[in-house]
Write a structure and sequence with these properties.
The chain has 237 residues and is mainly α. The chain has eleven helices and no strands. Helix 3 runs antiparallel to helix 8. The chain starts with a helix and ends with a helix.
């Protein structure tokens, strides 16, 4: 576990080789599980299943951005004894599981707010941050399905390629050659992500549309059952 946590630190920097190299720490069965999870996210991850991703994403956002926002706003850096990022991460973790649109709101609102605040300058940071945060957050909330599909497809594609490398790790030479070209792995993941996003947005109906179609089928079955009962009652053939 300690080795895995160390490997995950590669994702805090621009380190393509380190990003890909994490596959070496996964057993074959772990790679197979990752492949299944990756395909699932590519096919249906942008629907109700997104809450499974929204929770951890909210936790990560809390850990990464809380201290940055607090510092930029000029608030005390040691609020709650320095545990503020952890507290916010736990809150966002729970919020992501319970109400995923809140995470897409923050996921677009905070970075846009930080950019707007940076443009406004240190003295007027809040004047730039507030409207940027609100506008970005509203866009994220209104485009929740599209954002959730893109995020789920990106995560699913990466989990799939890393899982495939781990599952095929026994073919050492071939896998090592592929992993030795991290940009090729990243491009492959990108292609999978695009395919998954296109499928979920253009082919697969939205959860609301699926519910509507399901309700319509149920109403049709009920009407047919009532019609058959009526015909049976009056002897109509």
């Amino acid at each position: 576990m300690e080795g895995l946590l160390q490997a995950l630190k590669a994702y805090q920097t621009f380190n393509p080789s380190g990003w890909v190299g994490i596959y070496r720490l996964l057993p074959m069965w772990g790679g197979i599980v990752c492949c299944v999870a990756g395909v699932t996210l590519l096919l249906v991850g942008g629907g109700r299943l997104f809450r499974v991703l929204a929770g951890p994403i909210g936790g990560v956002l809390g850990l990464l951005w809380t201290q940055v926002v607090v510092t930029k706003l000029g608030l005390p850096a040691e609020m709650l004894g320095g545990r503020l990022p952890t507290v916010v991460a736990v809150v966002l973790l729970a919020m992501g599981f319970l109400f995923p649109p809140a995470i897409t709101f923050l996921g677009l609102g905070v970075p846009l707010g930080l950019v707007a605040g940076q443009i406004a300058g240190p003295q007027d940071f809040l004047l730039g941050f507030a409207p940027g945060f609100i506008i970005g957050g509203l866009v994220g909330a209104l485009l929740h399905r599209q954002v959730s599909v893109l995020v789920a497809s990106a995560v699913g594609a990466w989990v799939l390629v890393i899982g495939a490398l781990a599952a095929l790790h026994q073919f050492g030479g071939l896998v090592a050659a592929v992993a030795g070209r991290p940009w090729g792995v990243i491009v492959a993941a990108g292609l999978f992500a695009v395919a998954g996003a296109v499928y979920q947005l253009a082919v697969r109906p939205s959860p609301e549309q699926a519910d509507k179609e399901r309700a319509e089928r149920e109403r049709l079955k009920q009407r047919q059952a009532e019609q058959r009962a009526l015909e049976k009652r009056w002897g109509v053939k």
